[in-house]
Predict the 3D structure of the following.
Amino acid sequence: MRFRYLKYVFLSVAIISGLLFTACSNKTETVDEVADIPEEIVEEHEHIYTEEVTMEAACENDGEKTFTCECGDTYTEVITATGHSYEEVADSAVAATCDTDGKDADTKCSVCENVVEGAVITATGHQFGEYVYNNNASTAADGTETATCSVCGGTDTRTKAGTKIEVVYDGYDEFGNGYVMGDDGYKHFDAKCPYATYQANWTNNSEVYFYGIKGSPSISQSLKQEMAVKNGIPYDDRIKTDYNYLGYYNGQLVFSCRIYIG
Ligand SMILES: [Zn+2]
Ligand SMILES: [Zn+2]
Ligand SMILES: [Zn+2]
């Protein structure tokens, strides 16, 4: 029984094979090509890579690692830049003062020595107190007032508007000094030195005029020297004086005195 079945199986296989051969005979070329696949691709293997740093990473620049297999296959991986390692530079910080900027400490990378300047600290500005009038107005200009900084002791002097002394003169002396006639019969001079004791007016190469406070009727040599200095002229032993006028200024009795060399 069994062998009888086999007979039919062989027969069937022969018939089917014959049919298949006829149907596939046009495709034999294709089958041959598949058989020609190069050996190295067919013989695939598990790559074993050796790792090598081919470019070191720096503070700011990425590096690179290269992986190589014996078969020649390679690939690379990025090594991320390390970033700087900043440290403060000793004694590089500068404190701000009232009128000068300071700065934070500089920092320096311990690896690449790159330096970053410390940020600027803006000057704090003065802490000025009240402005105090300097009592120095004249008929020519406003006076000034000065404030002092409570932090550094620095001062700021500015014009005090409206302090200029307005005078309507009744006349002028031979030297151009204006005066107002007082009820006392004296010429009240717009003294050039209402606050200072001596203030001279250099008029030419040989004569100096000044106003002084009554009470220094005689002019000492030291005073002459002082006056010469104040007037920017060399002291000369031959300096002489004479008194021209009496007058008042701001309630103060003054006299006009001429100094001359001769
Ligand atoms: Zn390989
Ligand atoms: Zn660095
Ligand atoms: Zn200050």
User: Anything to note?
Assistant: Residues 240 and 260 are 5 Å apart (CA to CA). Residues 59, 84, 109, 111-112, 114 surround zinc ion (ligand 2) (CB under 6 Å). The helical segments are 2-24, 28-35, 39-42, 221-230.
